[in-house]
Automatic annotation (TrEMBL):
PANTHER family: GENERAL SECRETION PATHWAY PROTEIN A-RELATED. Gene3D superfamilies: P-loop containing nucleotide triphosphate hydrolases, Sporulation related repeat. Residues 442-520 form the SPOR domain. Residues 294-357, 393-430 are annotated as: Disordered. It comes from Salinivibrio kushneri. It comes from the Bacteria. GO terms for molecular function: ATP hydrolysis activity; peptidoglycan binding. The keyword Nucleotide-binding does not apply. This is AAA family ATPase. The chain crosses the membrane at residues 241-262. InterPro entries: AAA_22, ExeA_AAA_ATPase_DNA-bind, P-loop_NTPase, SPOR-like_dom, SPOR-like_sf.
């Protein structure tokens, strides 16, 4: 054994035998060895002594276990000592990290773990797997020596080695015999300058006891064998406590100084505060209230009891303040801000403005125009705009007299007769205008045509066809919009909007100047049916 004060080493026979057995077992193959002994048996000193004097491995790795360590930290401590400047992941098992870092190279290492009873079962299984792997590698020799308390690791080592032919080995630290105990006391007496009387007292106390180095030194948790010269407890360092008290005192003094300075400044700033225009100080209000009560108590009472009609009509709010003496009330005529209107104009709430409902025909025309690559503005032609105006309700007219009502009825009858006459004329002269409503109804609703014009006059439609020489190419149908007859001039029958647009590019320049647009036959069918009263 050795102490703190010199380099004297005491080689006891029982400890020398244990170290020699360890050296013999670890010399030829990989093993996991457990060295057990009670508190004070000198396990820490034996682990250090074995690594310094007895171990012949090329690489030594020492791990002193503490309760605050994690498995990742313990792996990192061992791996950094086995492979210098190695790169590894602390979360990976030991065997994986070593295999990756060695990359097929050899390994001759000794892993000594002190206080191994603090290891977790997971790390114990990794150490056992590492030893088993090394036994099957020709260039690997890895010995793991665990210094632990008796019986702490037997359960877990038995579980990890279950089913294996080879089992972990266990060596026990033997107690000191009578001669070794006396030799140990002699060495302590020399190093600590203890007299013969003290030696006799030690020997008397150790009679008929199981003696370990820690028992002789009187320290139950002694592991290294170091002995302190001064048995007195070291004086506590009171400097941190004094510094803490000083800091608390300074904080109290600083808080008092702040409280002393800032309240006076706040009072001064409050006294110098300038009130906004239209507001008065509380003292001024109370003084005016007292003066008004003294001069005209009846008026003050009436004013407090009945609010002013002028103020109520003007929308100003009145704030009444009861007097402290006789209950008189004064009015604050300052105008308050307008009330916030939390009722927003959203869908579903009534509003006074008129709403424009866009008909489905307009929506279809816009969609067709956008499918053709446009922005939808060309689709809203004059007849479509008339439908929008039709959807907007006209303002209510004043009550008409009996004569006006009769005149309106007569006018309506004449318009109806004129419309009937036009239709009869169309029937009598089928060649003058190519009206083919039934033929258009027979076309599939999935097809498209180009609408060249929408006219309210039959004569205009005939003139358009003659001027542009379209008699053999166009088709015309009638529809009703806004209580008026319209003539729709169509060109072609196309399978898609794209095909209709391509046909438009091939038209003559004067026809293209009419700005034709693509119209679906589904919309055409609806307009024809509308004219037929369907």
């Amino acid at each position: 054994m050795t102490d703190t004060f010199d380099t004297l080493a005491l080689d006891l026979e029982s400890q020398t035998q244990l170290l020699s057995r360890l050296q013999f077992i670890t010399r030829f193959s990989a093993n996991l060895i457990q060295v057990t002994g009670p508190e004070g048996a000198g396990k820490t000193w034996l682990s250090e002594r074995y690594m310094e004097q007895w171990a012949d491995a090329h690489v030594h790795a020492l791990l002193a276990c503490h309760t605050a360590q994690s498995d990742a930290q313990r792996r990192a401590i061992l791996l950094r000592q086995i492979v210098k400047d190695g790169v590894f992941n602390e979360a990976d098992p030991l065997i994986d990290s070593l295999t990756m870092m060695l990359d097929g190279g050899g390994c001759d290492a000794l892993l000594v773990i002190d206080d191994a009873h603090r290891l977790t079962p997971g790390l114990l299984s990794e150490l056992w797997a590492l030893v088993q792997h090394a036994q099957h590698q020709a260039n690997w020799r890895i010995n793991v020596v665990l210094f632990a308390l008796p019986g702490k690791l037997n359960k877990w080592l038995g579980q990890v080695s279950y089913g294996h032919e080879q089992k972990p080995l266990e060596l026990e630290v033997s107690p000191l015999n009578e001669g070794e105990a006396e030799m140990f006391i002699d060495v302590l007496a020399v190093t600590q300058r203890i007299g013969g009387e003290k030696k006799k007292q030690w020997l008397a106390k150790l009679a008929n006891q199981t003696v370990y180095p820690g028992t002789i030194m009187g320290k139950e948790n002694q592991e290294t064998g170091a002995v302190s010269k001064d048995k007195k407890k070291p004086a506590k360092n009171n400097k941190p406590f004094l510094m803490l008290i000083l800091a608390v005192v300074l904080m109290i003094l600083g808080a008092g100084a702040i409280w002393w300075v800032f309240p006076s400044q706040q009072d001064d700033s409050a006294s110098e505060m300038v009130l906004p225009e239209g507001l008065k100080n509380l003292d001024d209000l109370l003084n005016e209230q007292e003066e008004q009560t003294i001069t005209d108590p009846q008026t003050a009472t009436q004013t407090g009891a009945q609010p002013s009609a002028t103020n109520a009509g003007a929308g100003t709010d009145t704030i009444a303040s009861p007097s402290m003496d006789n209950g008189a009330v004064t009015e604050d005529q300052a105008t308050l801000p307008e009330d916030i209107n939390g009722e927003g104009l959203t869908v579903g709430r009534s509003d006074e403005g008129q709403r424009v409902v866009v008909p489905d025909d307009v929506v279809d025309a816009i969609i067709d125009e956008q499918d053709a690559g446009g922005d939808g503005t060309d689709a809203v032609d004059e007849p479509l705009a008339s439908e929008i105006s039709e959807a907007v309700p006209a303002p209510a007219a004043p009550q008409a007299s009996t004569s006006d009502t009769a005149q309106d009825e007569q006018t309506a009858s004449e318009d109806q007769a004129s419309t009937s006459a036009n239709r009869a004329q169309d029937a009598r002269e089928p060649g003058a205008l190519p009206l083919v409503p039934q033929a258009l109804l027979n076309v599939s609703a999935q097809r498209y045509a180009l609408q060249l014009a929408a006219l309210q006059s039959r004569a205009d439609a005939v003139a358009l066809i003659e001027n542009y020489q379209l008699a053999d190419r166009v088709q015309v149908y009638q529809t009703q919009r806004n209580n008026a007859t319209w003539y729709m001039v169509l060109l072609g029958d196309y399978a898609s909007v794209t095909e209709a647009r391509r046909a438009e590019l091939n038209l003559a320049d004067n026809v293209r100047a009419l700005q034709p647009f693509v119209k679906s036959f589904s919309q055409i069918h609806r307009e024809i049916n509308r004219a037929n009263g369907q």
